[in-house]
Amino acid sequence: MTGDDPLEESESGKPVTDGGAAGADDVALDPWGSSAVSDYRKLFEEFGIERFDEVLEEVPDPHYLMRRGVIFGHRDYRPVAEALREGEDAAVLSGFMPTGDPHIGHKLVFDEIIWHQQRGADAYGLIADLEANSARGMSWDEIDEHARDYLLSLLALGFDPEEGELYRQSTNRELQDLAFELGADANFSELEAIYGFDGGTDVSHMQSVVTQMADILYPQLEEPKPTVIPVGPDQDPHVRLARDLAERTRFFKVSKAYASFELEPAERELVADLYERLDPAEFDDDSLRCVHVAEAIEETPLEELAVSADTLGSVLTKLEEAGMEPVRPRTRFFDRRATDEAFDALIDAIDGEKRVYENHVDAFELEVGEAEELAREVEVDNGGYGFRPPSSIYHRFMTGLTGGKMSSSVPASHISLLDDPEDGYDKVKAATTGGRETAEEQREKGGKADECPVYELYAYLLAGDDDEFAKRVYDECVGGERLCGDCKEQAAQLMREFLAEHQEKRAEVEELLEDADIELESPRA
Ligand code: TRP
Ligand code: SF4
Q1: Which residues, 6 or more positions from 514, have their beta carbon under 8 angstroms from its beta carbon?
Q2: Strand partners, 249
Q3: Is the CB of 522 within 6 Å of ligand 2?
Q4: Of all residues in the chain, what percent carry a pLDDT higher than 90?
Q5: Residue 394 in contact with residue 72, Cβ under 8 Å?
Q6: Mean pLDDT value across the chain
Q7: Spatial strand order in the sheet of 91-96
Q8: Does the Cβ of 434 fall within 6 Å of ligand 2?
């Protein structure tokens, strides 16, 4: 988001005192605010979310939400895709704040969890009751009622509770211990910068943040594994913080190095670049030394180096101080918070030539990737978590049926999974469309399927796995062959069928829920 300085200027020139979380027109990702996104491109450019279509090919038998671009973004999904492909361990986890009825937007996330579970991932669905209580002021009675509804829908859609795990935050002691521990690595300034917290933010709300951090890392408590968190992009601040915290708990930091001293990333790039360019054979005793690199840098025209003056200055100082030390690429294990035993175990575990320093070990015959695996193994063997940074996938928010955003507080804007099938039918019939003023104009110019909430219903839900059907609706719409009246009628009927079927299944899984290992009544209620 906006980095560490809470008073940093926003693009509009206003000082941002809320970490960029508010502000109607700026792109903002705010977990407790509006979840409308006006411009998805900005999420790539400003927040560093990656495009999902770039990993799509690596996903075995991708879900229709992936194929249709409803899942549009991700962070670091590759390791998860690879684990699914290779049949290796992976996990999927998402959480639900029980503040109202589960609706068709939540169904996207339910489906994503279930899809990963069916492809072999350990699956977790959690009820964020602590968050609902602290951040939304829900009573425990309300929470219990809604929690049950979320869980029934999740099971009705195919979640297997025997293979997967369901829990509620408030009764999961292991989770709370992990949250407490992670809280030791996060401080108030950081939460202020990320979430816009201030002196008036209550402590329980802050605790709900560390609880969510623990949720996200919970699947890795037994052992580290690629884990994906399917969520809306409003949750991205949480994902980034969890990725940072995961990193902070690690015993060792693995990096590439060129000599005994530490380099900052930009400095390292410069040295790497020169290392590639210089030929050791041109130097006195066939060995390239730090001073030689310093000299070469000084002789290279500045334009060619493309680094800041600061970086240039600091690299030169470091190289000159090291003097005649040979430059040799190596893989470095920096000791972040390893116990003495773990540090010694690491030294023993490194094969080939190595050098041990006070706070790091350099290995000369290990690639960075192998070194990372080794560091994780040693950490886990010595009582650490060895967390992998959690991955995420992001789905688009559905447009409200009445135009604007879909909001739980505006019943006509969304379809609840508990809506009477006839009401579902009526809501679709009453929905706004991307149609033209008159049938004639529609035949001539075609409808605007890309701006149509009804088309979204087809693509996100009603067409199911049938890409051909979704495409036909789209093509017929933009080609002017489809008129909104019939189109809505068809969608409304499909919605009615879907709701009736879903509710039947909900009734069938009641028993499954009673047998599942999750408390349905809060001890506080
Ligand atoms: N904060 C999420 C929401 O507002 C709920 C949540 C809690 C969650 N813990 C989570 C989501 C872990 C994903 C992963 O809906
Ligand atoms: Fe939307 Fe269907 Fe009308 Fe096209 S024809 S604008 S998809 S309602």
Answers
A1: 520
A2: none
A3: no
A4: 83
A5: yes
A6: 91
A7: 50-51, 71-75, 391-395, 227-231, 91-96, 122-127, 165-168
A8: yes
- Find out whether the beta carbon of 457 lies less than 6 Å from any atom of ligand 2: no
- Token output for 49: 């979310």
Q: Which of 401, 450, 455 to mutate to test the pocket of ligand 2 (most atoms within 8 A of CB)?
A: 455
Task: Specify the higher pLDDT residue, 12 or 477.
Answer: 477
250-254-259 Cα angle (round to 5):
140
Confirm or reject: Cβ of 428 under 6 Å from ligand 2: no
pLDDT at 521 over 80: yes
Are 250 and 386 in contact by the 8 Å Cβ rule? The answer is yes
**Distance between CA atoms of residues 515 and 266, nearest Å:** 56
Per-residue three-class SS string for 106-137: HHHHHHHHHHHHHCCCEEEEEECHHHHHHHCC
Q: What is the pLDDT of residue 36?
A: 67
**Ligand 2 pocket mutation, candidates 452, 469, 478, criterion most atoms within 8 A of CB:** 452
Q: How far is the CA of 381 from the centre of ligand 2 (A)?
A: 58
Q: Which atom of ligand 1 is nearest to the CA of 211?
A: 9
Tokens of 511: 């028993």
**SS3 letters across 11-77:** CCCCECCCCCCCCCCCCCCCCCCCCCCCCHHHHHHHHCCEEHHHCHHHCCCCCHHHHCCCEEEEECC
- Within 8 A by CB and 6+ apart from 177, the residues are none
For 390, other C-beta atoms within 10 Å of its C-beta total: 26
333-345 confidence digits (pLDDT tens): 999 999 999 999 9
Question: Would you state the structure tokens that stand for residue 506, as one six-digit string?
Answer: 């909900």
Give 426 Cα–ligand 2 centroid separation in angstroms. 16
Model pTM greater than 0.85?
yes
